[in-house]
Amino acid sequence: MALLPVLASVSAVPVAATRPASAAPVVFRADDRAEALLLRATRATRPAPNPFVVPAPPAAVVPVAAVAPPAAPARPKTRPANRHRPAAAPAQRRARPAEQAWTPPAVSGGIAAVLAFAHSAIGAPYVYGAAGPRAFDCSGLVLAAYARIGVTLPHKASALFRVGRGVPVSDIRPGDILVLEGGGHAAIALGGGLMIHASRAGRPVAIARIYATPNAVRRIVG
User: Fold this and answer.
1) CA-CA distance, 204 to 198, in Å (whole number)?
2) Which of 47, 59, 64, 136 gives a 20 to 30 Å CA spacing to 100?
3) Predicted confidence (pLDDT) at residue 67 exceeds the cutoff of 70
4) Is 138 a catalytic residue?
5) Which one from 84, 119, 155, 185 is the annotated catalytic residue?
6) Is residue 155 annotated as part of the catalytic site, yes or no?
7) Lowest-confidence range among 20-29, 133-142, 145-154?
8) Quick check: 138 pLDDT over 70?
9) Active-site residue among 84, 119, 138, 155?
10) Is 119 one of the annotated active-site residues of the chain?
């Protein structure tokens, strides 16, 4: 049984003596194994490219400026209500409430002529510096009315403070000259709290209420 000592001697040789001294031990980490398995599974499931399939071209990009904004809704055309309405004739001018309330007073002589002329000027336009016959300013209407009876008056409202004689406001009579607005306006009294005057540009001669306490009341006749 000479083999037994040989086997015994072989088995007694250490394992390290059979490896090359220069070889390093191979160590496999768990992360490396998982990554290798994942890479292998990905390659197995990825479809092979088809050389006969032509890829679709990219979608065209439309610039924002090329897109037209939505059209605004059309507005309905409206016509003025009075487009075909004929204009009223000057003779058909509607009387103002003050004109309807005024009744010519029972006066005679020169005052009646003054009031008649002033009333006939109703509707005439206001023109600064005018004293008739077709347009008036405030003092121009007063001097034109009194010119009918031969009385000459200044063509300035503030100058009317010194004409005739002064009377109290409580004693205003038809035909008296009213100086208002500190001497900036003049009118002719009609009685009953009314007066006739050429007020300002854009407003014709008209009858109106005495809107403020007169600064002066001047009486020319009587």
Assistant:
1) 6
2) 136
3) no
4) yes
5) 185
6) no
7) 20-29
8) yes
9) 138
10) no
Three-state secondary structure call for residue 17: helix
List b or e across 28-41, with b for residues whose CB sees 16 or more CB atoms inside 10 angstroms: eeeeeeeeeeeeee
Residue whose structure tokens are 């300002």? 200
Q: How far is Cα 145 from Cα 21, in angstroms, rounded to an integer?
A: 146
Closest to 169 (Cα-Cα) out of 157, 160, 178: 178
User: Residue 82 corresponds to which tokens in the numbers above?
Assistant: 């009075």
pLDDT digits (tens, 9 = 90+) for 30-51: 556 667 676 776 665 566 666 6
pLDDT recorded at residue 94: 53
Which segments of the chain does DSSP mark as H helices, in order?
A: 3-11, 30-45, 97-101, 110-120, 138-147
pTM for the whole structure: 0.57
Of 116, 95, 99, 94, nearest to 107 by C-alpha is 116
List the domains of the chain with CATH numbers.
97-219 (3.90.1720.10)
Catalytic residue among 84, 119, 155, 197: 197
